[in-house]
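[audit] Reproducing an earlier prediction to check determinism. Same input, same settings, fresh worker. If the tokens differ from the archived copy the diff job will pick it up downstream; this log only records the rerun itself.
[audit] input (315 residues):
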Amino acid sequence: MRLATFTYAGEQHCGVVDGDVVRPYAANLDARTIIAAWPDAPPLGDAVPLTQVRLRAPLSPASLRDFVAFEEHVSGVRRSVDGVAGVPDAWYDAPTFYFSNPHTIYGPDDDVPFPAASTARDFELEVAAVVGPAGSIFGYTIFNDWSARDLQSREMQVHLGPAKGKDFAGSLGPWIVTADELEPYADRDGFLDLWCSAAVNGAEVGRDLLSNMGWSFPALLAYAGRDSRLVAGDVLGSGTVGNGGCLAELWGRTGRQEPPPLRDGDVVTLTVQGIGSLTNRVVSGPSQPSLTAVRRRDPAAARSAAATPHPSDPL
């Protein structure tokens, strides 16, 4: 089954895609509500041709964890972003992730606004698992983890993780394919053997198998829930596939920005076997004011001042 969110006749609906039509749920519920109640979904309404609807992001995530499960991606991007070769030993210990922004999610055919100051603009080709009831995997969708590499490279020198280099945008779509539909693609270890490809302005720049992940989605799900809490509608990104799943990986391997960073007007299409395609156009967001300058202090002087009694302090 393919669960989609779409607008039709000025209203937003959630429904089931069946061939070239979509059938909205009779109750006007959002995708997270339907997923949380699964399999007790409300009845479906009359079919509407897909050509008459506007697909939106398939859901508004409850939270968004993005893993880094492809070794080849880590090796290439680490050299490009951090200037360091190889894969850190810690990568092999556990499927590391960071929390991204669930409130800046775009859907199919949306324009994606990059920070105006960024010149090293990049996409990331990923597959995301959508968490269902009782900590299960409800289904899968395509995830584009847009990246401002120049901002990311600078801020990650603080060793805290990506912030403004990532949180401006992510894309999901075109719909959620339920887990049962992709079971035929699973290998004996539970990895999904799906071809994934990325194209910029119609020219393919990367292709890889999703089964080249270091950890399966069930393993990502188990790690995300360890000492924590998952709810229906949480989204778990696979991390970027290798072999050109993003431009920065290629830049790291060649030592130059070729293919060039994304520019305004570039169209990025991510395609995943068994799921579909997700297309977005790159634009620039509004210019932002300069940052407030940091307050620099002399630590020794600050400690001395703190130890000196203030006239108003009680004796």
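[audit] rerun output stored. Observation attached for the diff report: The radius of gyration is 22 Å.
[audit] end
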